[in-house]
Amino acid sequence: MNVGAQPTDTVRSILSNEGVMLMKHLQGGVRKGAFDEAEAQRRFEAWKKQKQAKVDSLKADMASKQQLAAKERLEAEEAKNKAKAEAVAKKKAELAAAKAEEAAAAAAEAETAEAPEAPAAE
After folding, report:
1. pLDDT tens profile 58-89
2. Distance of CA 36 to CAs 22, 30, 65, 72, 100, Å?
3. CA distance linking residue 1 with residue 92, whole number of Å
4. Measured between alpha carbons, how far apart are the two ends of the chain, in Å?
5. Signed CA dihedral, 64, 70, 74, 80: sign only
6. Smaller CB count within 10 Å for the chain: N or C?
7. Which helix (H) or strand (E) holds 103?
8. How many C-beta atoms surround the C-beta of residue 112 within 10 A?
């Protein structure tokens, strides 16, 4: 880069993200006498720390969003399971009530069948 290479747009973007373009710029400042090599290194390290902090905050933000989304999915699933359990419990209660009614009706029929009929008067 310091001897005149012209990178493509894609390569320039990659080099810029890695800090190569910034270092080239800082080395130009050292050659012109604007500041010394130690100042150039200090500025580059400051940029590197700032970039790393930004990446770390983005990662943390993404992780918290994923945790929040997972929590919401879990709550939605629990709500669906609860609704399904209530529906099953209701259906079981209806079946139990129907069986109880059948048993009561059968018992009532059995009682009426067992009761002796009154003899007919002659």
Report:
1. 999 999 999 999 999 999 999 999 999 999 99
2. 15, 5, 44, 54, 95
3. 78
4. 131
5. positive
6. C
7. helix 37-114
8. 8
What are the domain boundaries of the chain?
Answer: 9-103
Write the single-letter amino acid at 111: E
Which amino acid makes up residue 4?
G
Quickly list DSSP for 53-69. Answer: HHHHHHHHHHHHHHHHH
SS3 115: coil
| 37-114 and 20-32 helices, crossing angle to 10° | 160
Q: Return phi, psi of residue 7, to 5°.
A: -75, 155
- Residue 18 and residue 8: Cα distance in Å, rounded? 15
